[in-house]
Amino acid sequence: MADDIQTGGCQCGTVRFRVEGKLGDASVCHCRMCQKASGNFYLPLVSVRAAKVTWTRGERKRFQSSNHVWRGFCGECGTPLTYEAPDGMALAIAAFDKPEGMAPRIQWGLEAKLPYVDNVPRLPGEETMADTDATSFLADLVSYQHPDHDTDTWPPEERR
């Protein structure tokens, strides 16, 4: 990772973090526990290693997913945030404000890899607004998701 300071947080903005220092390796884990923890095909993570993590807003909730591992997440919106094991912590790549520079370099847990994952890049693709059946729905859609940067004015007073 090129930058020595990274920030991130959950979807609703209740939990925010700051990482100072060089992050470790980025990876993708296909194990069943990571699938369940992320509600997805796999969980992209980046190791914290010697970097310093500071929770700048809110506190993550934690779930002990095994006798060795805790999973951190936002208690309000459910965003997965951490994988915490005896050898250290990893953060969910997509929880960072600028995840584009954190390309995974290895895959773990291949024994649980879903059989269709490798075919996803070959599926036809369209931009969101190309869904003509959803045009009226999307035209006045207002996102309540926290912006990808720190701000003192979040969350908005009226969400729903």
Describe the structure concisely for a colleague.
The chain is mainly β and 160 residues long. 8% of the residues lie in helices and 29% in strands. It has one domain: Metal Binding Protein, Guanine Nucleotide Exchange Factor, Chain A, CATH 2.170.150.70.
Keywords:
single chain, mainly beta, Metal Binding Protein, Guanine Nucleotide Exchange Factor, Chain A, seven-stranded mixed sheet, 10 strands, globular
Average pLDDT taken over every residue: 91
Sheet of most strands? 7 strands, mixed
Radius of gyration: 17 Å
CATH architecture: Beta Complex
N-to-C terminal Cα separation, in Å?
38 Å
Number of helices, where a helix is a run of at least 4 consecutive DSSP H or I residues: 2
* Series of secondary-structure elements, N-terminal to C-terminal: EEEHEEEEEEEH
Provide the low-confidence segments as ranges: none
CATH class membership = Mainly Beta
Strand order of the largest sheet: 6-7-8-9-4-3-10
Beta-strand percent range:
25-35%
Rough outline = globular
> Which structural category do the helix and sheet elements fall into?
mainly beta
Please name the CATH topology: Metal Binding Protein, Guanine Nucleotide Exchange Factor, Chain A
Tally of separate domains: 1
Query: Helicity level, as a percent range?
Result: under 10%
Q: What is the β-strand count? A: 10
